[in-house]
Design goal:
The structure is a single chain. Helices cover about 75% and strands about 0% of the residues. Helix 4 (about 110-125) runs antiparallel to helix 7 and helix 8 packs antiparallel against helix 10 (about 245-270). The protein is mainly α and about 350 residues long.
């Protein structure tokens, strides 16, 4: 007979195992790339980064190899870890709040909001690098999330799962039309949007990581606070109200976490397809439906999956690279089809 203590031990051991795998993957992310480097060279570069008073991302490199490790791979790995974790947690939350296991954070219009404002800022101010338009893209994602939540509460004052989905679809379609109008009228905006929309962690320096880190941190804190109430909301709104949960306030807290996490991550690396969809399903296999465990598992697995995909992208077409959004789309599409078929949402 399975006891609560046994379940808890299994979950803790699984969490520890995933954390160890993630740590090893972080090391691989710094050591592996399109250019082969000796382990000793990588270690020396990291040791200098740790001991340097200027910080790991800003201290001057002593050689080309050290510049590759600390100037390119280290911030790239840190950003992939942070954004992958954020998208995994956001996916778990949005599936819980919409009660739709085939939903991801893009359903709230965050991707469309970030894309439109980023393209508009490039068109208006001739920005050419992520560090220049990242604040505009983040503002667009936040405004889109607020617009979706506001539109879903117009009737009856409650943001139900169905109204959230419908409002998200409407806002996304509207913003995509505006984005198309901008990118078709300006070649610079078109080129920037084309490279951003595919999803990649390449070409992002430490400045991008530090810009989005406060928003990701705030989103993780809100997600952990929202987890216990989400367990009750999963039983239905009426049951949750009977147990003393303020449904509107709890849903607003969770959706604020989704907007911060998915908005900041998407702004930094572009829309990463299927990550927020796949990761919660993998986490549920190990945790069950308890969001107090599902959220930490989703964070670790999200970072692990994005890092592994990025490492594969660096070596599969050496000396070139694939974008990680392409790799995850290739891996995620078959998994999505398998999930749909298992849930009998398509005919055999």
């Amino acid at each position: 007979m399975t006891t609560l203590a046994t379940v808890r031990r299994r979950r803790l051991s699984g969490l520890f195992t995933v954390a160890v795998l993630l740590s090893l993957t972080v090391v691989a992310g710094v050591a592996i790339g399109a250019r082969s480097l000796a382990p000793g060279t990588v270690f020396d570069a990291l040791h200098h980064a740790v001991t340097c008073s200027g910080g790991p991302f800003t201290c001057a490199a002593r050689s080309t190899e050290e510049q590759i490790v600390r100037g390119l791979r280290l911030p790239r790995t840190a950003l992939a870890l942070a954004c992958g974790s954020a998208l995994g947690i956001a996916g778990a939350l949005i599936q819980g709040y919409t009660r739709n296991s085939l939903a991801d954070a893009g359903i709230l219009g965050l991707n469309a909001g970030a894309a439109f404002v980023a393209a508009l800022s490039v068109y208006l101010f001739s920005f050419g690098t992520p560090v220049q338009y990242i604040w505009f893209a983040l503002a667009g994602a936040l405004v889109a999330g607020v617009a979706v939540f506001g539109a879903s509460t117009i009737r009856g004052g409650r943001a139900s799962p169905l109204s959230l989905v419908l409002a998200g679809v409407a806002v996304t379609a509207f913003l995509q039309a505006l984005t198309n109008a901008v990118v078709l009228s300006d070649s610079t905006a078109s080129n920037t949007y084309r490279f951003w929309v595919v999803g990649t962690v390449a070409g992002r320096d430490g400045a991008v990581f530090w810009q989005v880190l406060p928003f990701l941190t705030a989103g993780v804190v809100l997600a952990l606070l929202a987890a216990p109430r989400l367990n009750l909301l999963d039983l239905g709104d009426e049951v949750a109200r009977g147990l003393g949960v303020h449904v509107g306030r709890s849903r607003a807290l969770g959706l604020a976490a989704v907007v911060l996490l998915a908005g900041a991550a998407t702004t930094a690396v572009g829309p990463i397809a299927f990550l927020g969809l796949v990761v919660p399903h993998l986490a549920r296999v190990m945790t069950g439906p308890d969001y107090r465990w599902l959220i930490p598992y989703s964070g670790l697995l999200g970072g692990l999956l994005l890092l592994v995909a990025d490492i594969v992208c660096r070596v599969v077409v050496r000396p070139g690279e694939l974008e990680v959004g392409v790799m995850l789309a290739v891996l995620g599409a078959p998994y999505f089809i398998a999930v749909v078929r298992r849930r009998k949402l398509v005919s055999p």
